[in-house]
Design a protein that fits this description.
This protein has 153 residues and is an alpha+beta fold. Helices cover 20% and strands 52% of the residues. It has one domain (3-143): Immunoglobulin-like.
Length: 153
């Protein structure tokens, strides 16, 4: 049973997240409503449930990794293709990091955002849960159009 947590963590690490859409609504001082539509791809060989957890959001390509918000990631069942959509009000945990995120969103064709948190995984058919680290980086579209579109104007 010692190998189960390592295999589960490796399978989770190998999964790929695609961020299809991000919406920011109802902005108020210190908080905003965030919607994220994403798809997680994996080999689907291990059937498990990843428990709900709080995950920090930060720009992957900017050191030090400073979270700009914390997202409650819903309980998710692992399959080859899983749609994960969240819509919740978030507190801005660091205004400077949030401002930088917005600048990158407006001034880049793409940007990479990471969700990082600690949670547990329950592998189907096994009676106990195991702690895992959830760290997924997804590339999302920014607002700056690709150079090819700018040249055509």
């Amino acid at each position: 049973m010692v190998i189960i947590p390592k295999v589960a963590q490796n399978k989770l690490d190998d999964a790929v997240i695609e961020i299809d859409a991000v919406t920011v609504l109802q902005t108020r001082p210190g908080e905003y409503q965030l919607g994220i539509d994403s798809v997680i791809h994996s080999d689907g060989k291990i059937k498990a449930t990843i428990r709900e957890f709080s995950g920090d959001l930060y720009l992957e390509d900017l050191e030090p990794h400073t979270p700009f918000a914390t997202l409650v990631f819903p309980e998710t069942v692992t399959e080859a293709l899983v749609h994960v959509n969240v819509n919740q009000t978030l507190n801005i945990t660091n205004m400077d990091a949030f401002t930088t995120f917005n600048k990158w969103l407006l001034n880049n064709e793409t940007l990479r955002v990471t969700i990082h948190g600690e949670t547990h995984i329950h592998v189907h058919g096994i009676s106990r849960e195991y702690p895992i680290t959830y760290r997924k980086t997804g590339t999302m579209k920014g607002m700056l159009p690709p150079p090819s579109l700018l040249l055509n104007k």
